[in-house]
UniProtKB/TrEMBL annotation:
Residues 380-407, 536-591 form a coiled coil. It comes from Sinocyclocheilus grahami. Belongs to the CCDC93 family. Residues 184-331, 359-587 form the CCDC93 coiled-coil domain. The keyword DNA-binding does not apply. It comes from the Eukaryota. Pfam families: CCDC93_CC, CCDC93_N. Keywords: Coiled coil. GO terms for biological process: Golgi to plasma membrane transport. The gene is LOC107555923. The keyword Electron transport does not apply. This is Coiled-coil domain-containing protein 93. InterPro entries: CCDC93, CCDC93_CC, CCDC93_N. Residues 36-142 form the CCDC93 N-terminal domain.
Amino acid sequence: MAAASVFQRVRTGSKIGAQYDQEGNLIKVETREDEEQSVKLAEILELLLAAGYFRARIKGLSPFDKVVGGMTWCITTCNFDIDVDLLFQENSTIGQKIALTEKIVSVLPKMKCPHRLEPHQIQGLDFIHIFPVVQWLVKKAIETREEMGDYVRSYSISQFQKTHAFPEDEEFELRKERAISTEVYAPQRRYKRQVDAGELLDEESRVHSTLLEFGRYSISSFTGPENFVLSSCPAGSEPRIFWMPFLQLRIKALMTGMAAMATEEGKLSASTVGQIVGLQSEEIKQIATEYAEKAERSVEDRPERFGPAQQHRRQLVSLNKRITHKTKDKAKQHDHSWEGSVSLCCFEVLCLLLSFRFLEKLRALVAMNETLKHQEQTFRSHCREEMTRLQQNIEELKLEYGEGGDEKKEMNMLIDQQYTADREKLQKIRLLMARRNREIAILQRKIDEVPSRAELTQYQKRFIELYSQVSATHKETKQFFTLYNTLDDKKVYLEKEVNLLNSIHDHFQQAMASSGSKEQFLRQMEQIVEGIKQSRIKMEKKRQENKMRRDQLNDEYLELLDKQRLYFKTVKDFKEECRKNEMLLSKLRAKGAS
């Protein structure tokens, strides 16, 4: 049986751990750090910490685990419905990392992320492109937490209140029960209607009597002019109009039939209430008398020229007197039918007062209506006069045209002939102008074909550049040709040398067999050496000739360079002189114009 290996078998797909040298020291691999990438990584970690992903502080995690873990946490926090399992594990294998990055990249478009990211950018830790995506995810996560925070808080409070309660809440419930059970705030009856006071006939009187028994008399009313009151009434009936002194007398009449409750302490007695109401009655009578006197005095002071207003005020004074008389009768008789007549009188008085207020406004409107009618009549008469004048002008023109009809026709014919002649002349002028324009365009094109000085300079520069390129290409081609010829000659000589050596090698053994063949072989060798020397002399001579030619061409080249420098200098001087000439010409033109 074979012995088991002492080394554990490496699991397929496992991550390669750190490598150590023979002495046990960690082997440091040379890496290239990008400063901008480091800055972006720091910003990404700060964003994740601000969002609440505190695992980014752990120093033992790799940047990949921090960033990808933060992105997975942000996507999960956003509470977005996705059909992807984003299971993040630290120190994952390469296959797991690739699968996770592909899932993250596929989820981002579903979340409507405005930034695009590729899986290889996450795996390669391209933090410059990862940063905007992380920034958007952090912002989205914070917004989601703010939206869900109030909901989660209210839900937790409701769940807590189902089974628990604070001491303050328990104390409040106890106080609430005691407050409800007591009758401190219940209505208390202060007065009671006497039996011998008689039964009230109408429902409204019974309501007011009941309110007075409990110490309240609340009338939902509208107070109009001259202390008139529009009182509320039971449902189904129309509102009534009362005069304030009449209401006060009515309260007094109701209070006379009531007595204070025996059980009440610190309350007013019936006699005291009657005395108070009596005092108020005296004040009411005094106020009504003063009002009547003032009304009569104002009527007497008015001049007679205010006819309708004077009559209106007299009716008002008479009605006030009738109201005062009826209120006194009501206090004595308590007749229900009298109340309806008084209310009707009060309503009439209120209508008269309201009509008097709008009298002045009505007068102004009537005056305005009369003014508008007068303006309309004036405008109509003006339009009729204008129409008559225009019709007269038309008739005069017709008569004038009828008397001089032949002259008008002749004049019209002359005008038509003149118009036709002028039109033909205009057409000829237009044709001539078109011909001139074509000639001008042709001349302009010819002028444009002649290059200007700037264009010539530009053409010169371009030709020089083109010549330089062609010259460089030609020189390079010549060098290639020379190299080829040199190598070809070298090849020929090497082939000759090889053939010669092969021939010597082949005939050497045969030549050494006898003395005659040996001498003949030596003579041949001498001839070969002599031929080689002759060839060498020829090549040396040829080299000298080429050298002399090169020196001659170099001298010519130097002379041409001198000529070129002189040419450039001459051109520069010529340009300067041309510029001076143009300046002088412009000055001369300016002096001639002045």
